[in-house]
Amino acid sequence: MQPFDIEVLIRGKKEVLLVIPDHESHKFMVFDGDIYLGTVLPMLEEEGVKWTSDKLMADELLAQIGDKIENHET
User: Fold this and answer.
1) Which of 28, 34, 39, 45 has an alpha carbon within 20 to 30 A of 21's alpha carbon?
2) Cα separation of 10 and 13, whole Å?
3) Nearest by Cα to 19 from 69, 71, 73
4) Could you tell me what percent of the chain has a pLDDT over 70?
5) How confident is the model at residue 68 (pLDDT cuts 50, 70, 90)?
């Protein structure tokens, strides 16, 4: 999969983030322009898929990013 853009809401504003997939580890590097926001990855839990990040990120933003990645993959 090639890098792709996703649109999320940050503080009520639409922002476009760049997602760069790592196919081997199923992790996704996320950038806001040139700023690295973190690497996110899905974790399977009893209640379903929960997304986690290597950097501190608001739960709401992390969930949005995860949802957009999941929707892009389908």
Assistant:
1) 45
2) 5
3) 69
4) 97
5) very high
